[in-house]
Design a protein that fits this description.
The protein is an alpha/beta fold. It has three domains: about 70 residues, no CATH class; about 80 residues; about 170 residues, von Willebrand factor, type A domain (Rossmann fold, 3-Layer(aba) Sandwich). Helices cover about 35% and strands about 15% of the residues. The strands form three sheets. Strands 7-6-5-8-9-10 form a six-stranded mixed β-sheet, sandwiched between helices. Helix 4 runs antiparallel to helix 5. The chain starts with 17 loop residues before the first helix and ends in a 5-residue tail after the last helix. Pfam families: DUF444. Belongs to the UPF0229 family. This is UPF0229 protein MED297_14610. InterPro entries: UPF0229.
Length: about 425
């Protein structure tokens, strides 16, 4: 029984084996994930799209090796030298005299790091950063529109532009045409050549000069006739035909709602911005075609672009329901539930007009959650929860699979909370 082995020898841009790099990353996945998680705490979120330098503990990169023990005899061939001649015995190096490659510095933590480090790319960094995360409850909906198309090979055509000529198919057609048009002449030419050879092999007394001249003349006519056929003709040309086909995809939209009222300190706003930036990178990585709607609110709500959402400053009171109403209106106007997967994330410090919190609960339960796949709420505050949190707890009890809420106290909570909100559900 024979076994077949397929070896991937494709090279990446730096002339290194891509398959070997992937195997290496899988082998040291534990250390890479630890380094990526540490980078989240050390870096700013806006710096997340860069690579990272990874160090591997020396105990994990040791490989089995063979060495020579004490005693024994071995034969080797050395280059010419001035000290030894054939037959001399060379003493072995004394044990323990080797020179190590470490820096000789002790570690007070009981565990050292090897000098070996390597870098992971931006895509690899984001891959490990967002591993096991997904937008929950993503379902396939009808396509909103056929805006995305892909060109696929759909055979050949007789007309086209020179750039799309299929050389192999054109040459095959030309060869077939020449065979078809000159087949009879070629068969006759072979026959004439055979008769001519037989006639020339006869003795001079039996050889017919008139027949030889006749055969030579016919041979010349046949070769001329065959030679007139063009090597390739316009009729032979074939062009690659590409058909434009719609590319099926999921239509998804993510609503980002943030409180920018006077109760939101600059530190609180910064944490909210970092959470949404992390969320935005996650969405962009997982979905090439996804709409993101930014809504800021204080006493009134406003749909803004990304720049204004993250960096403009506003003051005022807090009426959270204004943002929820605007989101509901935008969904009804631009994102029909039959065609879109709708997600929402809301950031707030928990302050709200007390009479408005029950309105928020009613809007979520009756209008928004029946239309969305997932709604996540983060409350950025070290204080005790207020009326808005308790109203949202009632919402979570009614919609446990569609609504999630977490508290963030400082910047160190951003990434763990993000993973908790968007972790992949086991089905």
């Amino acid at each position: 029984m024979m076994n077949s082995y397929v070896i991937d020898r494709r090279l990446n841009g730096k002339n290194k084996s891509a398959v070997n790099r992937r195997r290496f990353l899988e082998r040291y996945k534990k250390h890479i994930k630890r380094a990526v998680n540490d980078a989240v705490n050390k870096r700013s979120i806006t710096d997340m799209e860069h690579g990272e330098s990874i160090s591997i503990p020396s105990e994990d990169i040791r490989e089995p090796s063979f060495g020579h023990g004490q005693g024994g005899r071995r034969t080797i061939v050395n280059p010419g030298n001035k000290e030894f001649v054939s037959g001399d015995r060379i003493a072995k190096p004394q044990g323990g005299s080797g020179q190590g490659g470490g820096d000789g510095q002790a570690s007070d933590s009981g565990e050292g790091m090897d000098d070996f480090t390597f870098s992971i790319t931006q895509d690899e960094f984001l891959e490990f950063l967002f591993e096991d995360l997904e937008l929950p409850n993503l379902v396939r909906k009808d396509l909103k529109s056929m805006d995305d198309f892909v060109y696929r090979h759909a055979g050949y055509t007789n007309t086209g532009v020179p750039a799309k000529i299929n050389v192999v198919r054109s040459l095959k057609n030309a060869h077939a045409r020449r065979i078809a048009l000159s087949g009879k002449s070629r068969r006759r030419l072979k026959e004439v050549i055979r008769l001519l050879a037989e006639e020339e092999e006869k003795d001079s007394a039996l050889r017919s000069t008139a027949l030889i001249d006749e055969l030579l003349e016919e041979k010349l006519k046949l070769e001329t006739k065959i030679g007139r056929l063009p090597f390739i003709d316009d009729f032979d040309l074939r062009y690659n035909l590409s058909a434009k086909e719609p590319m099926p995809s999921n239509a998804a939209v993510m609503f980002c709602l943030m409180d920018v009222s006077g109760s939101m300190t600059q530190a609180t706003k910064d944490i909210a911005k970092r959470f949404f930036l992390l969320l935005y990178m996650f969405l962009r990585r997982n979905y090439e075609k996804i709409d993101v709607v930014f809504i800021r609110h204080h006493t009134s709500a406003k749909e803004v672009d990304e720049e204004e959402f993250f960096y403009s400053r506003e003051t005022g009171g807090t009426i959270v329901s204004s943002a929820l109403r605007m989101m509901d209106d935008i969904v009804r106007e631009r994102y029909p539930t039959s065609a879109w997967n709708i997600y929402a994330a809301q950031a707030s410090d928990g302050d709200n007009w007390n009479d408005d919190s029950p309105i928020c609960q009613k809007l979520l339960e009756q209008s928004i959650l029946p239309s969305v796949q997932y709604f996540s709420y983060i409350e950025i505050t070290p204080r005790d929860h207020q009326a808005l949190w308790h109203a949202y707890e009632n919402v979570q009890a009614s919609f446990p699979n569609q609504f999630a809420m977490e508290q963030i106290v400082d910047q160190g909570d951003i990434y763990p909370v993000f993973r908790q909100l968007f972790q992949r559900k086991v089905t």
